## 1
Amino acid sequence: MFKKQSKNKRASKLLVSTLLGGSLLLSPSVMGHAQTYSKKSFQQTSYLKHELRATWMASVLNIDWPSKPGLSIAQQKSEFINYLEEQKKMGMNAVVMQIKPTADAFYPSEYGLWSEYLTGTQGKDPGYDPLSFMVKEAHKRNMEFHAWFNPYRITMPLGKEAALSDLDKLPENHPARKHPEWVVPYGQQLYFNPGIPEVQNFVIEGIMEVVKNYDIDAVHMDDYFYPYKITGKNFPDQEAYQRYGASKFNNIEDWRRDNVNNLVKNINRSIKEEKPYVKFGISPFGVWRNKAVDPTGSETTAGQTNYDDLYADTRTWINNGYVDYIAPQLYWNIGLPVADYAKLLDWWTKEVEGKNVQLYIGQADYKINTNSNGVQNWFNPEELPNQLKLNRAYNNFKGSMHFSAKDLRSNPLGIADRLTEDIYKQPALVPPMPWIDNEAPKKPKVLQIKKKLGETKFKIRENDPEEVAYYAIYRFEGNQVGNINDSKHLLTTVRKEHNNQVYVDPTSEKGESYTYVVTSLDRNHNESKPSNPIKVEGK
């Protein structure tokens, strides 16, 4: 995601790429769609050494986890571990877990009640701390844990037009009942009003509770700021505008955008003041503005957009460094006239160019094998693989987030198999963020090598124990050390457990000679120089 991109401006038709020496098969509709990608941009290495690969796990309505409310502690834990094992096998190195879906919490909180999606009853203690458990299990597998918050939503659709009287159905100690002046009904849902300063402080304090008390790697928000517009209904915040914004802003739209900008800016500032290494990222709707409205917008005709309808000015966040990553949800197929994945990808890569913001792409795994937007592209098993390969044609691309875990589990058109055996077969490191920290740990020392019955074992001795989060293990055929920047030599990553850690390579083969080196990485993924090489002769 983000360094140089000028080569992608040369015009040519979409070309056939290669991943593992084989051809990238494009559907006829894609082949017939003219694009602006250079031949050189598609002559890329098969894998990226640095690439975030994450899966969203939604808790709202029990979409992903837990599968239903009221499961036992053992069942909940088993389900979550199984998800992590599946994702790790697919090549994922991060998980984005929704821990505050509807003004509630998956952890003991002063800013929300226990989530009903755990027990079936909002406010009922599940008997353990799910967030603490989930963070530890993710880190055990050396996966980043991104804590996903929804800032304003109080209820899911109520089945009827929402009214303030619906507050009475919430538990008495619910924050919304304690502060009914913060609440507005819109459509079939209740929301905290984003224009009230006390609401913004409440949201920030609720996030900081988690940052302070849990070992998370990132704070994550998605596309829910001001709610998506309902035809013929105005969001009921005119009174708040008159009170807080009319003296400073000529129109309510600019005031709403300023409310969201301030929230985003202050979340980031608060996080960095507490734990500078904790990242902050947002996954917005995939269109900032349409070109017909703003000549600097994308060549799309989306019915609603971030800037004009959700009041989420992603450009301001990127230009001012309010976020560490942006992950636009590009939930359309390549060549779709209303919102072409390829054109949007190109637009977003230009948005982040030269900025201290990484670009991840939100991938629509949930659309695979469905009829979406009246076209058949998602019935093509190559649609999403083509998108992932196209991503890698851009220097500014730094990773993908897949929605969602249960869709990958169901493996539509073999996508999970494809990730495991092909696209994500080679492990990848999460990209570092040098504007947060760019100082690498000292290199480790490797000793006590053994090979027995085809199993190689050695000890990693740490020289910088306070800084190191995990190790990268590189393996080379024969007795020479190759280039560790070539991702094909990256064997695996291992979480640091202690300063004299034993590593076993279960994939080494009897009779083969190998050379290993190990690097140390901190939690911002800065990588040390390689250790002393260890040679293992075939026997």
## 2
Amino acid sequence: MTVRDEVTHAPFRTSQIEHAQASERSFAVLWVLLLCQTGSLLIQVLAACMGRLNAGTGAVVVSGIASGLTYASVLWALTRPQLARAVRNTAVICLGVTTALQLRVMDPLMFRGYDEQLHLRTLSDIDSSHGLFQRHPMLVVSPRYPGLESLTALVHQLGLPVLVAATVVTLVARLVLVLVLCDAVEHLTGSPRKGGLAVTVYAVSAQFTFFSSQFAYQTLALPLALAAVAFIARARWARDPRPLLIGATVCLLAVAVTHHITSWLTAVFLAVWAVTESGGQARRRVLYGAVIAVGATTTWAMIQWSRLREYFGPIVEDEVSQATSGYRRKPFSDTAGYLTPGWERIFLVYYALAIALVAALLMLTYARSVLRRMQRYAPSSNSRRWEPRALLVLLAALLPLTIAVRVMPSWAEVGDRLSSFLFLPFCLLVADLGVRWYQSLPTQQSQSRRRRLTMAVHFPALLLATAAFVGGTLTGNGPDYERVPGPYLAVADGRSMDAETLAAVRWAGDELPAGTTIGADRVSSILLASQAGLWPVMKNDDKALYVPRLYFADKWGPEQSELARGLQVQYLYVDRRLAQELPHVGAYFYKGDTKGDPKAPQQLTQAELTKFDNVREISTAYRHGPISIYDLSGLTGESKAGWFGKTPAIGVRIQLAIGLLSGLALALIARTNARRVVTEKIKSFQIAAGLSLTFAAGVATLCVASVMLLLAHIWLGPIVFLSMALAVLLVNPRWAKFLFLATPPLMNGAAGLLMNGAARLRWKKRIAASGMLFVLAIAQSILSAYPEDVTKVRSILDDPSAVHMPVHNLNPAGSANGAR
């Protein structure tokens, strides 16, 4: 090579070296990020183990460290001077998935959230009946918005266990949330960094790490609603808006059948947006989305109106009562007298102040920009228009109010739910303001000064943001006893689901017929409904009959017998540990269940909980330790409610026939011109929407399709899907050959894509080591929960000293009463 050639190729060599160095730095950031995420998961597992060993405050502190490490490592990666798109995407995915897994590793063998158990009951009814709209004993509106449960049932039909299918759907919803939010902010602002930072700001929301990670309908509805808004935002100026508007329509339909409040708020937002949007095609396309949202939401709500009124009526009355009566709860405490530790109070107060100050800063910044425009364009009438940006600022300004209303117990939940929606415009504005501030720093003329100023601000900002995230986590996750495992506590949701409770519920599910009516406390009721398939009875407002009166009565007399007959309660579940303390969530059964002052709840006594042993007409069906299940059929007779029929059976031959015929039809269609047309449509949709919105549209399509299949009582099993795939491969042997030969190269190609072409073995080893630590964390969490959830439950059921009477052998006269 001549000197001339060397000079000619010098820039090319320089660019190669710079590219290699940039790749090296990106891999280093990726490895540190993945290592921190895996480490935070391991620390969270350690917190769970410490909680089960009754470590108390120590377990809570370790859990807080795990949450802080998760957030700090993601924010550190997203604020690096050079941000590669691979690093940005990995950080965003980690923030969505790791926080959800941290909630799940606390007990990977069962869902311990109260709302999760409510939706598991709806899922159980769908699985048992192969249909929709079965009555729900605890949450009447849940079966009427079955999008989440229907999608989970579809995943379950692939052959996955129910718990695994529910976890998969939850993680998919989390991915949709963070990816769509990141993509939408990047599309609106034109900055990839702003998209990633917006996700970190949204993660500060009190609902992000807890409620939005649960198996609950808002977890799926919120990301699909955000996807619909993102579709419409892209469609405003698109040359061909049809694919985008179709995607928005599918997402809005999925939201309408998944969650009532999310669908209503989405429709209102789109309607206001259509009014404030500038004229022309942009307004028409936003108006299209608003019409679809309002039409779908209104139509579905009208169909479910009776259930919605039954569900929201008591809630509205309770909110109005607390607002007008002036009732306030004692700060940093619950009804059982539990006090929040001092270090947590600091984080909670800091979180509230930080949100209020940032919201005030956004309003001040926007007001200054409006004043500058008014001074510059004073003669113009357009300078005073209320633009969509003002709408976003107004919504973000409402966030401090959602924190202020937490002084009232019932309004606290309303504030937390609203914050999930108000944080969406808030995160967009904060990310935009932060990046614009960074870009306003001195440029190339004083690069060293810019670097020093950035470093001086970066570390304190990282600490302050992480502290706000921890404060938001503490605010949304509730008291300490709801965040980490530990000994039994009275009516404390997950902490009330110990081995004794689970064993009694397991016995009831095995021995009592499905749909049997039973009275129980708040937490045991939902477990008996979701895990045992029974029908818990709380009250009958039409006849002014209430189950708590059976428990709070000093003795059993004719009045209690009449009450039991009127309620048609066949069994009573009694846990004598309820007399040890006041309920932690405010009531043993439901709000206002006691006959005392609601500001000073009445505590149950041992005498009230043992009076059933001395009644001749009541027999003991189950007893172990503090828990007894009493049979009242001698008083009330047999009683059933809800779904208690036989599960429709689909024979193996029928499933094989359906799968083979469907696979044959798909394979034959693939040989026609329809395959090319469908492929082109999907490609054009992906080009217009992007990968994130295409993923969201696919989830929404599956959600709507699963609801339609269940409405038609069509239930597919794993044999159907396997035989369908077999038929397709048999008709198209080239596909089978391609699949067999292409799998190893595709796996190697995926690994190469992850490494971006850098053949550096040490990075592969480090990433593989991080993956092994991740698997170890999941395995350890399962091993930690197994003794409490399985071993102890089995030993209780096998205990020969316990009363485990077969139902058909019970004597209505009470011969089994008091047996040991």
## 3
Amino acid sequence: MKVHSLACPQRRRRSILWRQAGAVVLLGWSLSLVALAGGPEPTPEQIRFFEEKVRPILAEHCYKCHGSEQQKGSLRLDIPEMALAGGESGPVIVPGKPEESPLVEAIRWESLEMPPSGKLSPTQIATLTEWVRLGAPMPKGHGDSGGLAIRKSRGVLTDEDRQWWAIQPIRRPPLPVHVTSQAGAEGNAAVTGNQMNPSACDGWSTTPVDRFVLDRMLGEGLRPVPMADRQTLIRRVTLDLTGLPPTVEEIEAFLSDERPDAYERLVDRLLASPRHGEAWARHWLDLVRYAESDGYKQDAYRPQAWHYRDYVIRSLNADKPYRQFVLEQIAGDEIAPDDPDALVATGYLRLGIYEYNQRDVRTQWAGILNDLTDVTADVFLGLGMSCARCHDHKFDPILQVDYYRLQAFLAPIAWRDDLPVVSAEVLANYRQQLAAWEAKTAELRAQIDEIERPYREAAVKAALNKFPDYMRELFAKPTHERTPLEQQLVALAMLQTVGDEAKVDFSKKLKGETKARWEALKNELAALDAEKPPPLPCPPTITDIGPVAPEVVIPGKRSAEPVEPGPLTLLDPRPTPIVPPPSGTTTGRRTALARWLVSEDNPLPARVLANRLWQYHFGRGLAEAPSDFGRLGQPPSHPELLDWLARELIDRDWSLKTLHRLIVTSAVYRQSSHGPQVTAQASRDPANRWLARMNVRRLTAEQIRDAMLAASGELDLRMGGEGADLERGTRRAVYLKVFRNTHDPALNLFDAPDGIASTPVRNITTTPTQSLFLINGPWTLARAQSFAARLAAAPSATLEERIEHAYLLAFGRRPQADERSESLRFLQDHGGTSHEAWTDLCHVLLNSSEFLYLD
């Protein structure tokens, strides 16, 4: 019996099993219909996306003709109602449907060519297209600010600004003492139906974390729900800490462990597992928009970018202090130039999009620096600073100069693809072997070069002629006369000429005797290839363009005075002192930035990181917008707890595993997500802001894919190295190749990020295409077939034993009586041992909500 459609004629599928699986499909369809019926108010994340990404594009390219002063074609784009109403020719935005929106056609130059001054960059087009796809959210209310008061004191910081919660010094608040107010007691009585004893929750807390949560819970008239059972806990914490479901053996070992600290021992084992770094690296890679391709239309593969991914996994498995983790990524080449790991870490600075044929190099380089500035502010500071690129931030006390103070730290970077990431000993051996080969082949290579050089030079010349006049002037300028910025622009342009030079096909260019001689020389050289050492790994890395930094100025300012690197003016208006490293080859600016990012004088990074860890464990941060601690986000629900966690992080040498352990061994983490008391608490706190129960969460895209492969017995747990090809690979999802424009179907459907922008919170969508993929998709069906084959590998087992094993592999538990009888009846009706019947049963299990969600 094939599982292809809910309309399948075999009505016996309307069993308890199929009601589980069918719920996924019906939920997808119903939610899609709700979405089409009318969009909700913009979320904080959508407002932030508009303010940071969309508004700067509209302000620079659109508002001049379609803003407050002028409305060509009666189209105005700076007010939500007018933007959606359109102009003389009708609506230009069809919310949620970019392919049907004239605005998107115009910016792609597929109909009208807008803006007429010049086509937007591919990144800008992608941003506006995504905005329309999201429904064209714009803030509403006062002006266009979403009800938030716009800061009036531009360029000036006030006493009110200095009270901003996110920049206050991090202190260790005292642990709360649980004395329940009478109001709290009465509130709980309404929930439980009994008069609550103020000390009823004594003994509930297992870590200091619980003291803060319980204090707020009781203050809101709530009380904790019972702890989850052991089977729920092992599945929850194992998927949480390792990204994989527990094995049958691990479940049985935990359930039979009667020691009082059995759970804590389980947590320690999971934190020590190599699977932990693989799972949590994915969270970090989301933030830094990791991908292994350039993006844009060509989306060229970056064959050695995976070294950075492996660096992140190694660092998290080793519990490398976050302080060191940051230092290496921002300035590894300056602080430890002889450490291969530190050089690989600077790959963080190379993760942006690159357009290989963008001849306007100045514009592309400015875009690269802006993107790097935005992401650095998002990831490490939790600030949406891109709003301040064009003017002082509208809502937060972030000045325009602050944006360029941060950018000034990063401005000297130079891309490097020629730095080997190996030990000194390996490098010395390589150079010795290479020198011997070069000496032996010098004459041969010289003769080949003499033949090839004119064609290579012609290819380079043709490539250089494609650049605008200002770039051709720079090419002609002597190297020692170029400014640091000019050196950067030339270096970026030369990357394109290397590609053009490599495309020369000498087998077609050369003719007659010259071609015959060239082929003979090449064959002679190839005969000596065995003596040439294989190339060393040289992943994308960073150094500075030199010891002198390029000037950074605020665009459009008449004075155009250089901006010196420094922190937020609100924290310190003075420029940061820069100490150049002894090598004399770099500026030292990135080392200064990295040290400030992990300085105790900077209250942001520790709060941001503590909040992120909490978010990934509970599905939502204490501050709900984890990359925006400003007014477009929200203050934390438990500010004292957030500060306590941040202080603990710093005092524990920035150990992430220590914080993980504190959180997952807490009583609040171990609460149940189901049951009568959960229902009662949910009626009082639907959003679970006060954490009186555990949230039910859908597995991430990677967890769904990997859990299916684990259940089917196909999961390949090899670590590290170049990524596997999409679809065909059975390695963990973190080891799949990551292309920005071509995605693994399973990961794409379940909301994995595309690597274009930093993703602090993933979308959680429920769509019909997900359900169709699970029911009709050949990939899912292949997993069900392998799952069935795995069960059949024990032919001596009874039907009941194999059914039990199937449930253990899929859900981490044995089947209930009705599930067992339904499964047994289905198999008996279809021959019992039929591979087709077992495939259908396994397919149902993989489609069920219990498989896809975490209690």
